[in-house]
Amino acid sequence: MRLNRFIKKLFCKNILQEQQKNESEIDIDLNYKELLLRLDKKITEQGLVDKDKLTIALWGNNEINLEVINVLTESNFFDNKWEIHAFISSAQYIKEDKVCGYPSRSEIWLKENPSDLIINTSYQYEVVINKIIKNIELIDRTVCFYGDFDVNNESNKYFDFDDIDFEKLEKPVLNIEDYKSDKPKNVLFFSENAMSLIQGGGIVVYNVLKGLPPENLLGFYSYTNITPVPEYADRYFHLNSSSLVLDRNDHKKQNYVYKNYNELINKDFRTVLSKVKIKNFKPEIVYFSGTSVGYLKLAVMASKHFNIPMVQLNMDNWIDDRPRKFYDKEMQAFFMQESIEVLKEASSLSLISTTNSPGMSKHLIKLTGYNHIPANNCTFDLFENDFDESTIITNNEVPIVTYAGAINRTLQGETLIELASVFAELNAEGCKAQLHIYTPWQFSGIANSMSIPNVVIYKGQAGQSELKDIYLNSDFLLGTVTFRDRDITHFKYSLSTKLSEYLCVGKPVIAIGSKEWHLIHYVQQNNCGYPIFLNNTFKRTQVKEEFRKILSTPKQKLYEIGKNNRKLWEKAHDSAILSRETRLAIGLKPLTKEIKTISLTS
Fold first, then answer.
1. Which residues contact 221 (CB under 8 A, 6 or more apart)?
2. pLDDT at 156
3. Which runs of E-coded beta strand occur in 11-164?
4. Three-state DSSP class for residue 311
5. I want to staple 569 with a disulfide (CB 3.0 to 4.6 A). Which of 10, 383, 573, 576 is the partner?
6. What is the C-alpha separation between 360 and 319, in angstroms, rounded?
7. CA 297 – CA 267 distance, rounded (Å)
8. Which residues of the chain have pLDDT under 50?
9. What is the phi/psi pair of residue 110, to 5°?
10. Distance of CA 43 to CAs 86, 124, 502, Å?
């Protein structure tokens, strides 16, 4: 076969390159062999085997475009009888005739001058680009760098943004290309949660900003029960007012917040300016990953005051949830409108706007008219070496279902208590299984209250470095949320960090909770495992029956699910891929394995 000639040569070169590689080089841990195999298959399908010279168009990420060209050259692809036809972008983004030394052309030009092969190198806009290519009738010539995606496959609803016209979305005032930097920028950070190793949003931010020198960060936060990661701990300052944390029954405080909203924000902003001055800090970019209009307004005020751009990570659906905590309809309407207006302004000032899920992205696109890109609560690779598929199936005599995460009584708590009863009854009826719970010490009370000897076992708090072995020793990994629709608003569109960790280790996922929860639908649509939809009137007998089916799944089926999950993580949950644009905006190099593994040993 034609492939045999260059695959062997490519791997020999790769061994040499690995020895010469250093942290400054890009390493995205993707299998170029698969890309070459897909290209080889496409050449055969399109009847191009005997062509004297192939023309190739690259559409997507320019850094990846250059990497692909490198690989094609080094592998002696098609005996080097090919040429780069053009780098393709949508017409409104083309500023110069050439980019990276190659012709820069639009989809209109591509339609009139079709290349033999088109390589879609974008992760974040992969689906959008594929649909444009389909519209100009060139999808049959297209290969995706991150794995081929069938735009006609109805099972891929997770990617379904058909009702959004991306061409008509508002464009940010600022362009990321104008703010590139060859060194890390000074980041002014706003979020209720500081970077941490135990809380979902804090974990994601820690991974995204990995390698940022501590002196390049000045942060403001409000949740004091979340301990910041040690290296940045003294770079954070506490704010009292702007998060507008409310008790829905405290009408007096609600009235006070409503009447003094702007003064509370201004008070905290004066604190921000004071700390910036005392620290002699020169902000160059604002990073927002908060969950309130107060913190987002602070971020916008800082962006405008210092005349610097922003980046956003919107973790949860605070936009709909915060206003409904006010008892008064007028207050609710005010804070809902305020949230949308501030979000629009923040999006216009942001070089990149990301969210923790496709569902959240779609919601914010519709609210603001600006694009928001799914970052899927990305995580680093828990494996220091290559993933081993033999770890998917365990040798446990009694199947172990593991939950790792926080246990808020009105969110995960009620559902886990019901599950404890389910496991007790299953075991009493001869269907043996154990539920292992790992949660931080502050939730130990509720965890201990549901413990049942040899059935439901509270295992304490697990450190980040311990999680891999805990997960590998489990047969199923559990994601859960409330079954009460009234309590789901804040997390309605969310994917949890634990889901990314579960997918990373290639274990089947059991997702249980409200039918409104995006994570359950995500698990169902991507064949990650087993969704169990609950409501206020669910019957325990039905849940028991679901678990009987799950626990009796043939090993081969579990193995196939596990393989699928690891591949999904590599494509859509790996922080090396999902953090690229944000790190580019902040002046950080793309994540390498060397940088990522700092997290495993810290």
1. 191, 192, 193, 194, 228, 236, 237, 238, 239
2. 43
3. 54-59, 82-88, 98-99, 102-105, 117-120, 142-144
4. strand
5. 573
6. 11
7. 12
8. 1-30, 149-158, 595-602
9. -65, -40
10. 19, 26, 37
Task: Compute the distance between CA of residue 582 and CA of residue 145 in angstroms, rounded to an integer.
Answer: 20
Closest by alpha carbon to 555, among 547, 563, 566?
Answer: 563
* Backbone angles phi and psi of 325, in degrees to 5: -75, -15
Q: Which two tokens stand for residue 336?
A: 């809902």
pTM of the complete model beyond 0.70? yes
Phi, then psi, of 362 in degrees rounded to 5: -60, -40
Please name which of 297, 305, 375, 309 lies closest in space to residue 343, comparing C-alpha atoms. Answer: 297
Hey, how many other C-beta atoms are within 10 angstroms of the C-beta on 125?
A: 18
Token pair 């998917």 is at which residue? 392
In 3D, which of 187, 178, 380 has the Cα closest to residue 288? 187
In this structure, which amino acid lies at residue 71? V
Tokens 């053009």 belong to residue: 86
Give the C-alpha separation, 400 to 393, whole Å: 11
The stretches of 75-225 forming alpha helices (DSSP H) are 107-112, 126-135, 200-208
Phi, psi of 354 (to 5 degrees): -120, 165
Report d(CA 540, CA 548) in Å as an integer. 12
pLDDT digits (tens, 9 = 90+) for 327-357: 888 988 999 999 999 999 999 999 999 999 9
By three-state DSSP, how is residue 25 classified? coil
Distance CA 598, CA 602 (A): 6
The letter for the amino acid at 455 is V
| Distance separating alpha carbons of residues 93 and 100, to the nearest angstrom | 15
**Tokens representing 268?**
């905290």
Cα distance between residue 364 and residue 593, in whole Å? 32
* pLDDT tens digits along 53-106: 999 999 988 888 888 898 888 888 888 889 999 999 877 677 788 888 999 998
| Cα angle value 378/38/571 (rounded, 5°) | 5
User: In sequence order, what are the residues at sequence separation of 6 or more whose Cβ sits closer than 8 angstroms to the Cβ of residue 7?
Assistant: 33, 36, 75
| Residue whose structure tokens are 């400054």 | 24
* Cα–Cα distance for residue pair 486/594, rounded to 1 Å: 44
CB 569 within 8 A of CB 504: yes
- Residue 264's contacts (CB-CB under 8 Å, 6 or more residues apart) are 241, 242, 244, 257, 294
CA 112 to chain centre: 37
Residue whose structure tokens are 């939730």 = 443
Q: 532 vs 361, 378, 542, CA distance in Å?
A: 24, 24, 10
Residue type, 259: K
d(CA 531, CA 104): 45
CB 546 within 8 A of CB 530: yes
Amino acid making up residue 52: D
Q: Give the whole-angstrom CA distance, residue 548 versus residue 543.
A: 9
d(CA 323, CA 332): 5
Give the C-alpha separation, 401 to 548, whole Å: 13
The half-sphere exposure of 405 on its side-chain side, counting CA atoms within 13 A, is 24
pLDDT computed for residue 595 by the predictor: 47
The 10 Å Cβ neighbour count of residue 411 is: 20
Strands 98-99 and 102-105: antiparallel
6 exposed, middle or buried (CB, 10 Å; 0-12, 13-18, 19+)? buried
